[in-house]
Amino acid sequence: MAALLRRRRGLLPALSAAAGRWRRGRRLGHGAAGRLLVSRLFQPRSLREGGEAGWEGRPGPGPGEAGCRSQKLLVQGGLICPAAPGCYHYLPSAVRAVEKLVAVIDGEMRAVGGQKLSMPSLSTAELWRASGRWDRMGRELFRLADRHGKDYCLGPTHEEAVTDLVAAQINLSYKQLPLRLYQVTRKFRDEPKPRFGLLRSREFYMKDMYTFDASEEAARHTYGLVCDAYRRVFEALGLHFVQVQADTGSIGGTMSHEFQLPADIGEDRLALCPAGHFAANVETMSTEQTTCPTCREPLTLTRGIEVGHTFYLGTKYSSVFNATFYSAENKLQLAEMGCYGLGVTRILAAAVEVLSTEDSIRWPGLIAPYQVCFIPPKKGSKEEEGAALMERLYDDLAEAVPQLAGELVLDDRTQLTIGKRLKDANKLGYPYVVIAGKRVCDDPPVFEVWSQNAGEVMFLTKEGVIELLSKVRVP
């Protein structure tokens, strides 16, 4: 009996390991040894000529909605699918890109002391009436009533809700400040003419942060910290951006800046000093201002896509909802506030817009849905023996570089030529494509590696491929 028990105890770790391997191999979309296969991805593509012809019978762009590069590429590539004017299904590859972008943003928000929360999309009209924005927002606000006749709106932003939440903390102390609360959630805006796909939609993802400080000086310090964090987000993505003075609009406050990606399709007009001394949204300037106020050089005009917006609010909302704290002298004081938004899905689309070619997506490396696509030889070709070598390379890379284990895709459509699959991979923007071409039969085997963003082709052994890809960064 003792020997039997020992044998059973010895079997348990092996059985557990075998079960783990079986579960990994059975993950949705994975084939042998847990490889992710292109044929199993839910990514209904319309990659051939004809634009959105693959979506016939489905809701398309609404009346007057103009197309743009990012909209065309994301729809054709099977990343998004039109659901209604200004509303899209985000398909699995797009969700992966969004989640990676959120991970980058989360890291920077944590670095400035951000605490993540989640507030309801449904907001009571009483809060918006108290701030005066129920009427001031006009028809842009999605409004609805429940079965009891109580009015609500779908929140385009959450200043009222978060200030009311903090105001409910009746014993808030200056020792608990600053509070830097943020969320990443769906927002709603009743755009009269939604267009440009995710760049101007009715439903979208946004990161919004709301800060509460004990003094104006502290609040302005927080403002600078969050703006620096935004700059680091765009720098990490490799996106050229400008921070410009902006109007406070319906949100209000006394200071505001936009983060803009220069692009011809952008809806905002920007005035920039060539030496970098001045940058503003034209709507904030007088028509007479044509030179930089610092160096007097003529301002250059360009267009931009707004991807972030920051506001110093002061006590605009805290005074309405009585969001107070106890000072060091044990006196009640109004909190000084700021609010900060990043358009998550707009950043995704804007990055595709400014980095891509007319017919191929180019992703910021950090947020590409998948990092590497492996293309084995065509079935029946004289290089077909290279298919096993390709699979082994996939497995060895996943083991040697664990952070890439979920970032690899094997294009198992071996009934298609390598050229056809490479064309598809180019269109979808995998940062790296590894091909088992003619030299896979060399001794040692040599693989063809395309670095899409660098525009380079390399010929590397298995060890060279692993060394190259071990440097790839993922969030």
What would you say this structure looks like, in words?
The chain has 475 residues and is of the alpha+beta class. 30% of the residues lie in helices and 24% in strands. The protein has helices at 2-25, 69-76, 92-111, 125-131, 133-136, 159-167, 216-237, 318-321, 344-355, 386-400, 418-428, 462-469; strands at residues 80-84, 87-90, 115-116, 122-124, 142-145, 151-154, 179-188, 203-213, 242-245, 255-262, 268-272, 279-281, 300-314, 324-326, 332-334, 336-343, 372-375, 408-410, 432-435, 447-451, 456-460. Strands 3, 7, 8, 9, 10, 11, 12, 13 and 16 form a nine-stranded mixed sheet that branches. Strands 18-17-19-20-21 form a five-stranded mixed sheet, with helices on both faces. The longest helix is centred in the first third of the chain and has 24 residues, at 2-25. It is elongated, with a radius of gyration of 26 Å. The two termini are 51 Å apart. Mean pLDDT is 90; it is low at 1-29 and 47-66.
